Amino acid sequence: MALRGGFLCPTYRLPNPFSFTSRSRDAGRRFAESATAAVAGRRKRPQNVEGEFFVDHLCIDCDTCRWMAPEVFTRVDDMSAVTRQPSCEEERIKALQALLSCPTSSIHTERPTNKILEVQKMFPLPIDEQKIPGVYHCGYHSERSYGATSYFVTHPEGNILVDSPRFTERLACNIEMLGGVRYMFLTHKDDVGDHEKWSKRMRCERILHSGDVEISTADVEKKLCGEGPWDIATDLKLIYTPGHTEGSVCLYYKPLKVLFTGDHLYGSEESDLAFSVIYNQQSVSLQLKSIRKLLDFDFEWILPGHGRRVTFRDNQEKNSALEAFLARQEPLYA
User: Does 322 lie in the same domain as 207?
Assistant: First the structure.
């Protein structure tokens, strides 16, 4: 299978068949046993309600826990806090998933819990097994990417890691059990996280637009040039969407009608479409032009790096939402 649209086909190498070892199991046990010790030097935010879970003062307000476990975590005074303790096992599991995903390890339990070992095995998490089978949330958000979400996609022509989660041996083993990684697609330069560790561990080839290549990503195997589009499989297309950064690119998975947007476009906490002006590194007007380009693609899911997921009933609703968003924003940056 060739990478079409500007660069050559890589040679496919199967991932290393690493197996679980006593060392990785011991690491999981040590995680649970040291939960209380990890709190040393961290202050519990007074905004937390009393109970099992709490958030410390090193929270960076990345929003991860609030969309992963909204029943438990809320934004209070520009940081997350536990405003209601879990009331059932499902809510407790979601809170523990958020604990593992927190990029600054700012979520804690008052006492160590062995339940964390069970929750570790759940990642990557299926997003919607009925509507978008084979698309997963990796969890383990990286502080180096300011808590950005990364995704794992199983595909018959080779699995894809979209942006970089924090590297952990447990997650790596879980991903290998799902078939490993052929490509690591980096949407833009901000969310590359632990890309080198993942590349070495999975022996996958990284893809990044040349406009976003920096010293830390100089050895990326496949550098996109020009304006594309580029195909990495018969039904996976890379769409050039500059604006947030010079080399921002979205991944379009046509059969499932999913668009992985990085930081190009996302949902706000109020469920509206949004983009970041304050963190724009190139041109807001260019970013809006790139958003308008998305009217030409039929998708019903937006899976972003930062921000909330967005779903639409159909392409017509998606286009109506995009048109309304652009009508509000384009006059401001004409």
Answer: yes
